Amino acid sequence: MTSSAEELSIFTPSVVALGGGHGLAASLRAAQSYAGGLVGIVSVADDGGSSGRIRRELGLPAPGDLRRCLSALASDDSLLAASLEHRFDNGPLEGHPLGNLLIAGMTQAGGDFQAAITEVARLVGAVGTILPATDGSVTLLADSDKGPLRGQVTIEESAGIENLRFDPARPAAPQAAIRAIEQADQVIIGPGSLFTSVLATAVVPDINAALHRTKAQRVFVSNVANDRAEARGFDLTAHLDALASHNVPVDVVLAPERVEVPEVPAPWRTVQAALSAADGWGHDPSKLGAALYTLLSTAAESAPEHTRTGSEAH
Fold it and tell me: What is d(CA 143, CA 205) in angstroms, rounded to the nearest whole number?
């Protein structure tokens, strides 16, 4: 008979990370260190910069955050992977990263946005699966202390935001994303821009329903710093209030050591750990990975044998 210690030594969990931008890329790099299966579910609501131009000119979902996640999971020795973030600095392509153009070109050539993402992932040797949070383009809507807001860029530059939602009102999520959440051992929510990355994914109706159904450990990763207008001055309490007001379920709040931690509503609990990168603005993926794995392995160790999940039980 295999002992509990031996079971944990081969524990290779299925991990899903939700969000967008640099925060989700950090979570994916962190989860790579311990996940047996890894899925990133990414907002495609960006309407600024290169992504906004591609949305307006080609009618495609925003590829930028998907590109960042593919870069995060790509093989270190791939020239193409190293080129995904290359941004043209002059001419008609000025401002476009190569990865955005690859995804857009493959989508037009093959007629399938997800197939294009999957093919770029294969070409760069990405370890894991990247999925858009919605099946097509969406526009973020919200209310603020200065009136209604429309579009990610507008929301990023605003304050007093509440009631984040979408146009169309109920965008469908890919079935693969829903299944991944339902079958996961751990779901990582954040870090990242509160409204335009984290909630922009977690409040997609199908995604939110799957978060409520899953038996996975749902971890909200707190930001190390907040410098965007949309959440400037927000402490951890304000972030948690926003999650609660948008009906996003959480089991564990993972916060940096230096953050003042409030009392959290049951059954939520808060754990603090050393998470900051050397620059003090972002997360160190190796520290974040160690903290996330500790949360999950501790929970698995304390769970009854018949309820323990992970690839050894799947």
Answer: 18
Q: Quote the CA–CA distance of 270 and 220 in Å, as a whole number.
A: 9
Does the domain at 4-43+133-307 match CATH 3.40.50.10680? Answer given as yes
pTM of the model as a whole: 0.90
Cα distances (angstroms) measured from residue 199 to each of 195, 228, 277, 314: 5, 15, 24, 30
For the chain, helix, strand, coil in percent to 5 are: 40, 20, 40
Domain ranges of the chain: 4-43+133-307, 49-128
Contact by Cβ (8 Å): 101, 60: no
pLDDT digits (tens, 9 = 90+) for 251-285: 999 999 877 787 777 778 999 998 988 887 789 99
- 69-102 tens-digit pLDDT: 999 999 878 899 999 999 999 999 999 999 999 9
Instruction: Write out pLDDT tens, residues 213-245.
Output: 999 999 999 998 776 668 877 889 999 999 999
Q: What φ, ψ does residue 115 adopt, rounded to 5°?
A: -65, -35
Number of other residues whose CB lies within 10 A of the CB of residue 145: 9
Which tokens belong to 249?
């379920």
User: DSSP secondary structure string, 225-292?
Assistant: ---SGGGTT--HHHHHHHHHHTT---SEEEEETTSPPPP--TT-EEEEE--B-TTSSSB-HHHHHHHH
CA distances from 174 to 134, 278, 288 (A): 6, 37, 28
